[in-house]
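Before a colleague's protein record goes any further, I have to sign it off. Would you go through it and say whether the fold makes sense for this chain? Take the sequence as given and treat only the tokens as open to question. The record follows directly below this note.
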Amino acid sequence: MKINKKLIVNLVFLVILISVYLYMSDYRLNEIKASKAHFGVGEDAQLFEKVNYKWGAVHLFKTPKGSCTAISKRLGFLWRTKTVFHMEDNQDLVSTVGWANNEKCTVYAVESSDNSLAYIEMGTGIDRIRIYSEKNKPMIFQWDKPIRWNDFNGVAYSKTGDAIYEFRYPKGNTIKMDEIRWFPIK
């Protein structure tokens, strides 16, 4: 059997060309590298939590610009991140450090430095989730479907079971996405 050298050279060139195209389009061989390849995350981002799904993964990062959450989807043996959500850093005792959703999932992360906080409940009906607070560990809420922010119904409770914070917009007429946060219940 005679091997056509020109055909082999063309196939190698085609494989190299496709590989360069995929790399330039932010496709990677693993999900973390795909997330860090996104311009909204960056290579110096520090992963602090990961939520796996059959179709992909959600990564929560700390970056020099604040927290961000990236959704990476599996495409055959490759991964790509198209969606990144950024959170503003703040000095609140209870703060959102990650939030992402798409047509297949919702992931929400919250950290607390309030020692009186025992647990947080979020969601409605059968989708309501309770997570207990652990020192220096974010509370990660996850659903296998999209949940709108106004259906989070987030309430933080004290060790005695009293509601002490609620996740909402400030009271008033202005609604800006960066104003939604955990407010003390008085």
In short: The helical segments are 5-24, 31-37. The first strand starts at residue 46 and ends at 52. The two ends are 84 Å apart (CA to CA). The CA atoms of residues 35 and 41 lie 7 Å apart.
